[in-house]
């Protein structure tokens, strides 16, 4: 493999570091104040999962991966896969909303609880903009938007635009995974298990579709300053990025869909056993629409 003009220089980015530390302290405060009253958040593994999500976010935003993502398209691809897949998955599977709510000042908690009744117009907008169908369209639009060649190349020139890209990708991914995992706050009626499974499966579609196009594109689409070439394999930076997107871009969505499927099937297994006398009657054995045969009645001549 040949690498050209890679800059390994790395500087600490204090703004994102302070934000991540603030979220970690906020979660710790909520866990300390609310763990006795939040029963479903009292599992010891929940803080570990949330901390793992923050660690992966730090890897995306603070590690040398952030700077390599401005030099190699394959590194930018890894960054995006983490932002729309693993980071929101680990952050939300810990169900952090009740803990974060408990970490807020009491005045802020009361104001948020009053939104539904005190600000009905704003509440209706929130409900409309967080519907599963709208969130899916928003997710697809934002993911594809940042693959636009002109806008993408601008993120290589302006760091603030690169940060805005990351923030938007993470924001829509959190909304999308919020519906997949059905965690708090539950503002909408829960989706049928089969719909949730399909919702998880189609989440990988927009990501993998981009990988398919890039994998078979002969011409370079983006103007990255560095390039890599695998000797004898005819795979360049763009081809490697396409392979990563196609193979890894939807793995978390697929695994989650499989888990939800097994969970759904398990619901049927957990149903109570019906006694023999309940289902072996003549009425129960008939096809729908038919009725049990009535015994003829006899009359006595008086």
Describe the protein in words:
It contains 16 helices and three strands. The chain is an all-alpha fold and 302 residues long. It has one domain (2-105, 119-269). A three-stranded antiparallel beta sheet has the order 1-2-3. A hairpin with a 4-residue loop joins strand 2 (227-230) and strand 3 (235-236). Helix 9 (132-145) runs antiparallel to helix 11, helix 10 packs across helix 11 (159-181) and helix 11 (159-181) runs antiparallel to helix 12 (193-201). It is globular and about 60 Å long. The N and C termini lie far apart (107 Å). Mean pLDDT is 82; it is low at 284-290.
Name the descriptors.
16 helices, 3 strands, 302 residues, 3-stranded antiparallel sheet, mainly alpha
Topology:
Elements: E1 2-4, H1 14-34, H2 45-61, H3 64-68, H4 73-93, H5 97-102, H6 106-113, H7 115-118, H8 120-129, H9 132-145, H10 149-157, H11 159-181, H12 193-201, H13 204-215, E2 227-230, E3 235-236, H14 237-248, H15 251-269, H16 276-279
Antiparallel strand pairs: 1-2, 2-3
Helix pairs in contact: 1-2, 2-4, 4-11, 4-14, 9-11, 10-11, 11-12, 12-15, 13-14
Q: Which blocks of ≥5 consecutive residues have pLDDT under 50?
A: 284-290
Number of helices: 16
> What radius of gyration results from the CA coordinates?
26 Å
Total DSSP E strands? 3
Taken as a percent bin, the fraction of beta residues is under 5%
Derived from helix and strand composition plus strand pairing, the structural class reads mainly alpha
Q: What series of H and E elements makes up the topology? A: EHHHHHHHHHHHHHEEHHH
Strand order across the largest sheet:
1-2-3
How confident is the prediction overall: mean pLDDT?
A: 82
| Structural domain count | 1
Q: Report the span from N to C terminus.
A: 107 Å
- Biggest sheet character: 3 strands, antiparallel
Q: How much helix is in the residues?
A: 55-70%
């Amino acid at each position: 493999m040949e690498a050209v003009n890679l800059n390994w220089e790395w500087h600490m980015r204090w703004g994102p570091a302070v934000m991540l530390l603030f979220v970690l302290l906020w979660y710790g405060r909520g866990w300390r104040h609310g763990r006795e009253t939040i029963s479903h958040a009292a599992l010891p593994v929940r803080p570990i999962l949330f901390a793992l999500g923050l660690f992966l976010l730090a890897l995306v935003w603070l590690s040398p991966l952030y700077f390599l993502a401005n030099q190699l398209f394959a590194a930018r691809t890894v960054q995006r896969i983490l932002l729309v897949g693993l980071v929101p998955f680990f952050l939300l599977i810990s169900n952090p909303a009740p803990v974060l709510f408990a970490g807020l000042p009491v005045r802020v908690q009361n104001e948020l609880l009053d939104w539904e009744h005190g600000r009905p117009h704003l509440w209706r907008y929130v409900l409309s903009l967080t519907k599963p169908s709208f969130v899916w369209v928003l997710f697809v639009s934002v993911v594809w938007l940042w693959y636009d060649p002109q806008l993408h190349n601008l993120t290589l020139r302006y760091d603030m635009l690169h940060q805005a890209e990351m923030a938007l990708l993470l924001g829509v991914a959190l909304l999308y995974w919020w519906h997949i995992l059905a965690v708090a706050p539950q503002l909408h009626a829960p989706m049928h298990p089969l719909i949730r499974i399909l919702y998880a499966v189609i989440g990988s579609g927009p990501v993998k579709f981009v990988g398919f196009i890039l994998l078979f594109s002969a011409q370079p689409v983006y103007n990255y300053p560095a390039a890599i070439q695998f000797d004898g394999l005819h795979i360049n930076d763009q081809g490697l990025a396409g392979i990563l997107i196609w193979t890894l871009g939807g793995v978390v969505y697929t695994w989650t869909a499989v888990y939800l499927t097994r969970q759904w099937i398990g619901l049927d297994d957990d149903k109570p056993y019906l006694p023999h006398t309940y289902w072996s009657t003549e009425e129960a054995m008939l096809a729908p629409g038919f009725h049990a045969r009535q015994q003829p009645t006899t009359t006595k001549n008086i």
